[in-house]
Design goal:
- The complex is a heterotetramer, with two copies of chain A (157 residues) and two copies of chain B (83 residues).
- With 157 residues, chain A is α+β, with helices and mostly antiparallel strands.
- Chain A is built from four helices and ten strands; from the N terminus they run E-H-E-E-E-E-H-E-E-E-H-E-E-H.
- Chain A has one domain: Aldehyde Oxidoreductase, domain 3.
- In chain A, the strands form three sheets. A four-stranded mixed β-sheet of chain A has the order 1-6-8-2, with helices on one face. Chain A has a four-stranded antiparallel β-sheet with strand order 7-5-9-10, with no helix packed on it.
- Chain B contains three helices and five strands; from the N terminus they run E-H-E-H-H-E-E-E.
- Chain B has a five-stranded mixed β-sheet with strand order 2-1-5-3-4.
- The N and C termini of chain B lie far apart (30 Å).
- Classes of the chains: A alpha+beta (157), B alpha+beta (83).
- At the A-C interface, helix 1, strand 2 and helix 3 of A face helix 1, strand 2 and helix 3 of C.
């Protein structure tokens, strides 16, 4: 089980090649990769800078990952999130999950990215031809995260 | 106590962090917010909009009623947009 | 958009490295890999043979993939399914989807594997220390596939 | 008409495929199944259990009431278990 914040470009395919490698108890691996797009809201995106809150970020990611393991029988899980300045086409985040059967891997993967998007302290600054702008939080992200809410003391806020 | 600002709140306030000595009557996150709003007009503007200024106490998300007793670090930031 | 039946081992990481490469309109890539496990129902699995119905398999996979594209705004999709004899730890199936935003990629990926499991003519034969046995269809797979059913003429059965 | 068998039905019948000339009265998948059951006792056994023998006509899934008129290939197989 691994959570990493990285400042340099990373290669999701390489990370996935190493993920859960050599484990023949794994029957299912799900992954999600988020990448910088070259367009947002009709404006061209030249670059994206991810700011974060060092310390709190790692803590929140570890907590979200622990919650996923508590909810699903995961054999392995991986979260890599890049910070700093990156270009269109570059990966921002990779989530991967491994389990014996597919439902756990698929659901836990969706859960991890949904909660990461609303509970981990990252902020996106987009560079456009007309200047830099901070990305606004989306109600749809809150809705996606809320799907997974449970009224339990163990649940992270 | 250390106060930290992130994303566009950092730009509004004009600094990433500062050390403050709180008056005794500042006991909660909400009171701290109001106190800082008195010092930074553009922080006050942000606080006037609902849900735009989030807080963390010692790196845990915190609501306005969260007591500050014992806290070493309080951070203010807009809603998160990672992933 | 690609659907492939392969008789030799394939490398999901290598396939994912090539998938949607160089497209900066892609903001989200989801993937699912199914692998041969070394255990099933308490018995050790020595090998797994996937039989299929050549011709019908390709037709059904193409149809399921087209249905996914009709339902979600996918920028790319990939389905690779291995047939023949394979060993524990080896990949059986890879599904990958690419879209601008994550919901489409994640949902379409889950849809593709759920429908593939119930609508594509593959059959698994497991080799155990006590002999070979055909894997039985699971009611949970039917339930997972039924989540995506719609009463529309365009929907494949 | 070509008849194909897959997975354990192939083992039960003892062949992967065969060419048959159907009597005129065999007009649907269900009738074909019954006719083949008369030839292969172990195919008949499988047909006796509900939902265990699936069919495809010209590589399209087909129910028992599916007419055979014009069909070139009919396949019988157990529920699929790929993925």
């Amino acid at each position: 089980m691994t959570v990493r914040i990285v400042e340099q470009p990373f290669d999701p395919a390489r990370e996935l090649a190493a993920f859960a490698r050599g484990r023949s108890d794994v029957g299912a691996v799900a992954s999600f990769t988020g990448l910088v797009r070259d367009e947002h809201g009709g404006e061209r995106i030249l670059a994206m800078t991810l700011e974060h809150y060092p310390g709190m970020t790692e803590r929140q990611l570890a907590r979200i990952e622990a919650e996923a393991r508590a909810r699903w029988p995961l054999l392995d899980a991986l979260v890599i999130h890049r910070v700093g300045r990156m270009l269109p086409g570059e990966p921002i985040v990779l989530v991967a999950t491994a389990s014996a059967h597919r439902a756990a891997a698929l659901e836990a993967c969706a859960f991890l990215i949904d909660w990461l998007k609303t509970k981990a302290p990252f902020w996106k600054l987009e560079e456009t031809p007309t200047g830099a702008r901070w990305v606004e939080a989306r109600a749809s992200d809150d809705a996606a995260a809320a799907r997974w809410e449970r009224r339990e003391p163990s649940s992270p806020r | 106590m250390r106060i930290r600002y992130f994303a566009w709140l950092k730009q509004r306030v004009g600094r990433a962090e500062e050390e403050v000595v709180l008056p005794n009557e500042i006991a909660t996150v909400g009171q701290l917010k109001a106190w800082l709003a008195g010092r930074y007009p553009r922080f006050a503007e942000a606080c006037a909009a609902t849900g735009v200024v989030k807080a963390a106490v010692d790196q845990e998300f915190a609501e306005d009623d969260r007591p500050l007793a014992g806290a070493r670090e309080v951070a203010f930031f807009p809603p998160v947009t990672g992933g």
